[in-house]
UniProtKB/TrEMBL annotation:
Annotated ranges, domain Glycoside hydrolase family 2 immunoglobulin-like beta-sandwich: 219-318
Name recorded for this polypeptide: Uncharacterized protein
The DUF4982 domain, residue ranges: 645-699
Similarity field: Belongs to the glycosyl hydrolase 2 family.
GO MF annotations, alphabetized: hydrolase activity, hydrolyzing O-glycosyl compounds
């Protein structure tokens, strides 16, 4: 039976070039250097049999070391110096590297490109020699080269595709000594995207031990053919024989209590055999975002007596279709309440563990999101697993519309790995490719879509296009997709183009694949270009407020206020719904500013997952549990006043009525409006409160209180995962009120845990960053804490020495905020 070993701990890491080991050799297994055991490590630098020794002795005239060096071409005296850090994976080396102000790095987050080396040794028990052994990397950013035991295994180019090597014969077992794994990652050869992509081994590394006759994981495919009282499903699988004799196996498929038997099959030595069969599931429980029911399927192969191998996958039963009227799930028209996302997070870059992935998705659910576009790259397995469970429809995106052989190989692998996921409904083939709508683009799209359709029979193929005022006129190009996606259809030029397509091709299925790109900085109610801050009420730097901006200014690309986006979707239901750009801010692409901007501010949550005000706008539109939110904060210095010296107050709610109070004086009750409710009031320090009513009854309220200076910090666990806690730190004044503009520098001490990273959501590099201490931004910061087994982490937060009022502002609390 198969087994797995994680290789995530005890790595050594070196940032910067050390002189790459060679990739070709004069004698097998003879690269040596850091790719093989070093002095003090258990095993020979180069494994030398009898004949080899004779040969080496000859060339070195008795000096074995010199002979080895001549043979290997590598320095055999390599050492792991103190410069090599001790790290665990997932790891993103860019997080700890200082920011640099360089225009060419602005889009990728102002972190310099570099080369990094990772080295790990591991031992394998002698009994494992009986297996096929596969070394698996879930993600290395980018241009990875891998060596094992003095042998170069190969390269993987893209940072968005997992890859693996069969190391069955190359691995060392028992007293053969340790295995030495060396990985070189190189981000200097060109970015893959125009956003922060991270650097290094940012996902898990594993060894898979397979029996000599096994199920090929990627071949196992379960798909929905028809749904009704019973569902008709298809099943495909391939079995591999790595022995030197023909093997007869009997496959069976298990879904719940149900078992489907296949005829016995014989697999010739070093060959594989594929099977397929339809089967029924009686009274199926369908997968929907509201009821994300998952089935588990196991394909098992039996030899003469016993079970030789088995592989399991979860899947969902659902039918997806799309026509000129929009999206249909299980036959019902269904509104997509979607977001587009990159994959990074505060404090950890792209090295997100499963807990952080789940935290992000739970935040989206809280906002009412039911769809996720993995823009503009393949979604990770962790993300897809989580979307399956939480009921979030996925649009998985091909990185780029190219048909070079390696891209097609990557695509094939990703289609096979993704197609069983219940949450997968759409594949996006391209995003705003400049070759879109051309003959060249058509040839590439044709090849890509044909490949995908040969591997995946149920998911819909979409493109995400930017339109010109004429729309897409090349019918050939358009004909490659089940659905033509339009980015920013709510915007001028794109809207004009869309009208033309709709008029010329009324039957064409169309989808809104990207929307809004609306800027806002969390907790900020005043534009400040120097600090790269934009007002949550609507920024003068936004592309949608005319007058201040012209085409060609940095950051042009956004299109509409959130209210306008959802209006457009309501008026044009055939567009399927929306995919807001973006839910979370991400590092890089610091539109609409240049340096010191280091991150985007398109999100309705910042990079830490702290909500901005418009999070609640979407929540008011997309959820039903009574909610109300009032903006802005109620501290004068941070507010924008109109000519009459008054200030706007805006409220989002899904209830019937809302009533605003300033210091208990009612400012009037209003019916909940189409978009939001708004009052223009005098600023009087104290309390700004809103009460929301349903059927005349007060049901929820929200308030902001004018705060004084910060004297203390509260900590609150906002997510408690299997291995990780996310802890919000918030400044409070002497009366316990949240201080909305606090930016104190903090010292953090942790017991029963360790700090994986910190963040504060500031989209700009701030003066305070130089002090290298964590500081609050708009009153908040985030701690990402790795838990220690069975103990609750305890956090101590104090103002950092030399910053603020030392001695006066200190607090000790456990992770629940208790002193
Ligand atoms: C879109 C693009 C996104 C992002 C966005 C910013 O056109 O697809 O990747 O750059 O603009 O507004």
């Amino acid at each position: 039976m198969r087994n797995e070993m994680k290789l995530n701990d005890d790595w050594r890491f070196h940032l910067g070039e050390i002189g790459s080991p060679v990739k070709t050799v004069k004698k097998a297994g003879a690269i040596g250097g850091l790719t093989a055991p070093l002095k003090g490590e258990d095993g020979e630098q180069i494994t030398i049999g009898q004949g080899g020794k004779h040969f080496l002795n000859l060339i070195s005239q008795g000096d074995l070391k010199r002979g080895l060096r001549m043979l290997a071409g590598t320095d055999m005296d390599s050492e792991l110096t103190e410069e090599w850090d001790r790290i665990a994976i997932p790891h993103d080396w860019s997080v700890a590297v200082p920011y640099v102000d360089a225009p060419e790095l602005l889009m990728s987050g102002s972190k310099p490109e570099n080369i990094g080396y990772y080295r790990k040794t591991f031992s394998l028990d002698a009994t494992l020699e009986a297996n096929q052994i596969v070394l698996k990397f879930d993600g290395v950013m980018r241009m990875a080269s891998v060596w094992l035991n003095g042998i170069y295994l190969g390269d993987n180019i893209s940072g968005y595709t997992p890859f693996e090597f069969d190391i069955t014969e190359i691995a060392k077992f028992g007293d053969e000594g340790v295995n030495v794994l060396l990985v070189r990652a190189d981000t200097t050869t060109g970015a893959e995207g125009w956003w922060y992509e991270g650097a290094g081994i940012y996902k898990e590394v594993r060894l898979q031990f397979l029996p000599k006759v096994y199920v090929d994981d990627d071949s196992f495919y379960i798909y929905t053919k028809e749904i009704g009282e019973n569902a008709v499903l298809g099943c495909e699988a391939t079995f591999v024989n790595c022995t030197d004799k023909p093997q007869t196996v009997r496959p069976t498929l298990h879904v719940g209590d149900q078992q489907v038997a296949f005829d016995g099959i014989t697999i010739e030595p070093l060959h594989s055999v594929s099977i397929n069969k339809d089967f029924l599931i009686y009274q199926p429980r369908l997968w929907t975002p509201e009821t994300p029911h998952l089935y588990e399927a196991t394909i098992r192969i039996y030899g003469e007596q016993q079970n030789i191998d088995e592989f399991s996958t979860t899947f969902g039963i659902r039918k997806i279709s799309y026509d000129k009227n929009g999206f249909f799930l299980n036959g019902s028209n269904y509104l997509l309440k979607g977001v587009c996302e990159h994959q990074d997070f505060a404090g950890v870059g792209v090295a997100l563990n499963k807990d952080i992935v789940e935290f992000k998705l739970l935040k989206l659910k809280e906002m009412g999101v039911n769809a996720y576009r993995s823009a503009h790259h393949f979604a990770s397995k962790d993300l897809l697993d989580c979307c399956d469970r939480l009921g979030i429809i996925v649009m998985n995106e091909n990185r780029i519309l190219e048909t070079s052989p390696w891209r097609l190989r990557d695509l094939e692998k990703m289609v096979k790995r993704t197609r069983n996921h219940a949450s997968l409904c759409f594949w996006s083939i391209a995003n705003e490719e400049v070759i879109g709508n051309t003959k060249l683009g058509h040839r590439m799209a044709k090849r890509v879509t044909a490949l995908m359709q040969s591997l995946d029979y149920e998911h819909l193929l979409v493109s995400a296009e930017l339109l010109n005022p004429e729309g897409i006129v090349d019918q050939e190009y358009m004909s490659n997709f089940d659905v033509v996606g339009v980015n920013y259809p709510e915007a001028g030029v794109m809207g004009e183009g869309l009208k033309k397509i709709k008029a010329n091709y009324p039957e064409q299925p169309l989808m809104s694949t990207e929307n809004a790109s609306y800027f806002s900085t969390r907790g900020i109610y005043k534009d400040n270009a120097e600090k790269c801050q934009t007002n949550n009420f609507g920024s003068l730097y936004s592309m949608v407020l005319p007058g201040k901006r012209k085409l060609g200014d940095p950051g042009v690309g956004g299109t509409a206020r959130p209210e306008e986006v959802l209006d457009f979707i309501e008026q044009n239901p055939y567009m399927g719904g929306s995919f807001i750009w973006t839910a979370f801010d991400y590092a890089g692409e610091p539109a609409p500013f240049g340096w010191p901007g280091i991150g985007s501010q398109f999100g309705v949550l910042d990079t830490c997952g702290f909500e901005k005000d418009y999070f609640y706008y979407y929540q008011s539109k997309w959820t039903e549990t009574p909610m109300v939110h009032v903006m802005p904060h109620w501290n004068k210095e941070g507010l924008t006043f109109n000519e009459d010296g008054k200030v706007e107050v805006r409220v989002f709610s899904n209830c019937d009525e809302v009533e605003l109070f300033v210091n208990d004086d009612s400012q009037g009750k209003q019916s909940v409006g189409e978009h939001h409710n708004s009052w223009v009031v005098d600023f009087i320090p104290g309390e700004l409160k809103v009460i929301a009513y349903s059927k005349g009854e007060a049901v929820v309220s929200d308030a902001r209180v004018t705060a004084k200076e910060a004297v203390d910090f509260l900590t609150e666990v906002i997510y408690d995962g299997e291995t990780t806690q996310l802890i919000k730190v918030e400044a409070i004044d002497g009366a316990g009120n949240v201080v909305p503009m606090a930016n104190n520098a903090l010292d953090i001490a942790i017991k029963n845990g360790s700090l994986l990273g910190t963040g504060n959501g500031n989209p700009a590099y701030a003066e305070e960053d130089k002090e290298n201490a964590l500081h609050l931004f708009s009153g908040k910061a985030l701690l990402i804490v790795k838990k220690e087994a069975a103990a609750v982490p305890k956090i101590k937060v104090a103002v950092a020495e030399g910053c603020g009022k030392e001695g006066q502002l200190s607090a000790v609390s456990d992770s629940k905020g208790n002193p």
